[in-house]
Amino acid sequence: MYSNSEFNRWRRHPWHGLHVRADDAPKDIVQVYIEMTPSDVVKYELDKASGFLMVDRPQRTTSSPPALYGFIPRTYCAEEVAKRCPGVEVADGDPLDICVFSERHITRADILLKARVVGGIQMIDGGEADDKIVAVLEGDNIWGDVHDIADLPAIKTERLQHYFSTYKMVPGKENNVKVDFVYGREEALKVIAAAELDYNNHFGHLHTEAKASE
Predict the structure, then answer these.
(1) Considering the domain 6-203 in this protein, what is its CATH number?
(2) Which of 29, 111, 116, 183 has its CA 20 to 30 A from that of 139?
(3) pLDDT tens-place string over residues 132-147
(4) pTM for this structure?
């Protein structure tokens, strides 16, 4: 699927063509590609081959994400991420998910923003590690001074846990999702570092090829 460097010839691919953070940014400030907003009741997801946002599925329940929802570019959840999640052997094989709280209602997806990492939720979905990093919009007037998930009202995290425990529910099928463990900023940064390493291990050749063709 990724046999050449054409993913950034015109518009940069949101997953492969961007960076985790700016070169001069603190390690807890990351770049985020937003796939969904809190008003969405349809599950949108990046089409990894084309880089376009696509409809994955309509949500069966009335639940919508309680925060902006997307992923951190050039991350991948594989062996190294799985090592940080006791009781699992594999991760979900997607970019690392992130939820971003903003005081102002951002009404559109397919955008980039900068966010400060404050923690995460260790989600296990069908036996696979599927961590959800939690962050706040950088410079936000209400949440901008939050530096750890303990500084957020507990209901914020509870709503995320409820959303992710129910967003794949289908009547008649077992919902094999666990979202019990919430961790703080330091562990979240380690999960991101693991996802960066997984990305380099699996997709680093794309950027080597791109530089060689310049």
Answers:
(1) 3.90.80.10
(2) 183
(3) 999 999 999 999 999 9
(4) 0.91
Environment class of 106 (CB within 10 Å of its CB; exposed 0-12, middle 13-18, buried 19+): middle
pLDDT beyond 60 at 130: yes
**Domain limits, the chain:** 6-203
Read off the pLDDT band of 209 (50, 70, 90): low
Name the CA dihedral angle for 46, 182, 200, 213, rounded to a multiple of 10 degrees: 40
**155-182: pLDDT as tens digits:** 999 999 999 998 877 666 777 889 999 9
Contacts by residues 153-158 (CB-CB < 8 Å, ≥ 24 positions apart): 156/66, 156/67, 156/101, 157/119, 157/121, 157/182
